[in-house]
């Protein structure tokens, strides 16, 4: 279930409260991805982000893998569905900075404005997904929720169709997308043709058995 506004208010925590929460967080961690509190009150830690991208991303062609379509030095291709990446960030990093760091880690050349970070959480036996604002702090959300990803997880998606900033796409990118769509359409068409050809052969074989002369 997607909701537009299901955000927890960012409650100011004292340095002592942060210290207690980090100690509690670290005592529950099972994957060694602990948080560290610095003397200046800023803390660092890890978040995992699942990629749920429907459209292809653009990277340098030398870095590409999988299905792709080329244009100049860029390559557009689809990331594997459900790919998860771990980022080391600080409590001062905003959602926008996290998106930029994630794209940089994957060597993605696309404009960060095309993407949005969502949080997915469980409440009363239901799963809620909502888009985070650019100024929210993911590590704070992680600290408050605890380390269990089934209670809170982060997801990177494209903006919804009605929110897409088309001016953020370059002409070569759009041309790459069209080439990929044409290729996939042709592949699906060939699959359908083979499927119906097989049905036709079976029907003709069955009819031949029924209408044997004599």
TrEMBL record:
It is found in: Cytoplasm, Cytoskeleton. Residues 163-210 form the SARAH domain. One of its GO terms (cellular component) is microtubule. Gene3D superfamilies: 1.20.5.110, Phosphatidylinositol 3-kinase Catalytic Subunit, Chain A, domain 1. Residues 71-161 form the Ras-associating domain. It comes from the Eukaryota. InterPro entries: RA_dom, RASSF1-6, SARAH_dom, Ubiquitin-like_domsf. GO terms for molecular function: zinc ion binding. One of its GO terms (biological process) is signal transduction. PROSITE patterns: RA, SARAH. It holds the Pfam family RA. Keywords: Cytoplasm, Cytoskeleton, Metal-binding, Microtubule, Phosphoprotein, Zinc, Zinc-finger. This is RASF3 protein. The lineage of its organism: Eukaryota, Metazoa, Chordata, Craniata, Vertebrata. The gene is Rassf3.
């Amino acid at each position: 279930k997607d909701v537009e506004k299901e955000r927890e208010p960012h409650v100011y925590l004292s340095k002592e409260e942060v210290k207690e929460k980090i100690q509690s967080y670290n005592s529950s961690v099972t994957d060694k991805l602990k948080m560290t509190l610095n003397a200046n009150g800023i803390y660092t830690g890890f978040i995992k982000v699942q990629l749920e991208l429907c459209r292809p991303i653009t990277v340098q062609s030398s870095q590409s893998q999988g299905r792709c379509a080329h244009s100049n030095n860029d390559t557009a291709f689809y990331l594997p569905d459900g790919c998860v990446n771990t980022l080391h960030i600080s409590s001062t990093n905003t959602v926008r900075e996290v998106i930029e760091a994630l794209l940089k880690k994957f060597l993605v050349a696309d404009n960060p404005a095309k993407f949005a970070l969502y949080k997915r959480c469980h409440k009363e036996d239901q799963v809620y997904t909502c888009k985070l604002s650019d100024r929210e702090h993911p590590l704070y959300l992680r600290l408050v929720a605890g380390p269990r990803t089934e209670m809170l997880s982060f997801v990177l998606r494209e903006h919804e169709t009605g929110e897409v900033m088309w001016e953020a796409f370059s002409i070569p990118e759009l041309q790459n997308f069209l080439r990929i769509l044409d290729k996939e359409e042709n592949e699906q068409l060939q699959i359908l043709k083979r499927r119906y050809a097989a049905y036709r052969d079976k029907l003709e074989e069955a009819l031949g058995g029924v209408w044997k002369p004599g």
